[in-house]
Design brief:
With 273 residues, this protein is of the alpha/beta class. It folds into two domains: 37 residues; 231 residues, Glycosyl transferase family 29 (sialyltransferase cstii, chain A, Alpha-Beta Complex). Strands 5-4-3-2-1-6-7 form a seven-stranded parallel β-sheet, covered by helices on one side. The chain is globular.
Length: 273
């Protein structure tokens, strides 16, 4: 009996040593801070997201695809499509731009003024995440899903008047994601002077915040703006130029670009462009 017990204890000790060694080599949480080096993202995901079981993927590699003109002629489409989760935003089209931006979309973050309304852009495999900036946005969703007459009053531009997605494809973004982006990341004041228009984060930065909550690895593409050339392309599609963005009073693009640079410099994200 003693021999059996001794063999059991020894076997347990060996198993513990093997498991402990594997954890030390492979698990980020066992590594001392001085020993942590960024590993090849294609091989290892070692940062656990807050909602680990959301998509049921053990190691979730995500890319957030911005709409910046920097994506033009980069032929990153195939690379972008290789990620587990692909997050896009607003009405950045895929059709006609597949070589540069890819074909797949897992999540598309939008608000009433920026959501697709042309059925040509419908994707049955996309989940649309509605960003609520104002109470009117929720009323719009209620009206458009209920087939009611939509009032366009209270929007900064005409919102979508028809929904091309099925109701089962639509989610509402947790407001805490937007709040974290605005107040914890960009340090916006909770109140702005009456003479100053209130600032809110861009959809792109909110999408990155979401990615940090559901992804192990976060990569970016299309998030660089050229402030030195007012005539440079604002988006990878269309003819808008940087002059339109520089005149925008609702965003603080300079603050966002500085924050993104910190994320990249500290290796919290990988920037493909």
């Amino acid at each position: 009996m003693k021999r059996i017990l001794l063999v059991f204890i020894l076997a347990a000790a060996v198993m513990y040593g093997i498991l402990h060694g594997n954890l030390w080599r492979n698990n980020f949480y066992w590594l001392p801070p001085t020993a942590v080096e960024r590993r090849n993202a294609l091989d290892t995901c070692f940062l656990k997201p807050a909602f680990e079981s959301l998509l049921g993927i053990p190691c979730r590699r995500c890319i957030v695809v911005g709409n910046g003109g920097v994506l033009r002629n980069k032929t990153l489409g195939e690379k972008i499509d290789s990620y587990d989760v692909i997050i896009r935003m607003n009405n950045g089209p895929v059709i006609g731009y597949e070589e540069d931006v890819g074909r797949r979309t897992t999540f598309r973050l939008s608000y009433p003024e920026s959501i697709f309304s042309d059925p040509i852009h419908y994707d049955p495999n996309t989940t649309v995440v509605l960003i609520v900036f104002k109470p009117r946005d929720l009323k719009w969703l209620w009206e458009i899903l209920g087939g009611q007459k939509i009032s366009v009053k209270g929007f900064w531009k005409k919102p979508a008047l028809n929904m091309i997605y099925k109701s089962s494809q639509i989610r509402i973004l947790d407001p805490s994601i937007t709040r974290k982006t605005a107040y914890e990341w960009l340090h916006f004041p909770t109140r702005f002077p009456k003479k100053e228009k209130p600032k809110h984060p861009t959809t792109g930065l909110i999408a990155i915040t979401l990615a940090f909550h559901i992804c192990h690895e976060v990569h970016l593409a299309g998030f660089k703006y050229d402030f030195t050339d007012r005539n440079s392309s604002l988006h990878y599609y269309g003819n808008e130029t940087m002059s339109q963005m520089m005149q925008n009073e609702y965003h603080n693009i300079t603050a966002e670009q500085k924050f993104l640079k910190k994320l990249i410099d500290k290796n919290f994200v990988v920037n493909l462009t």
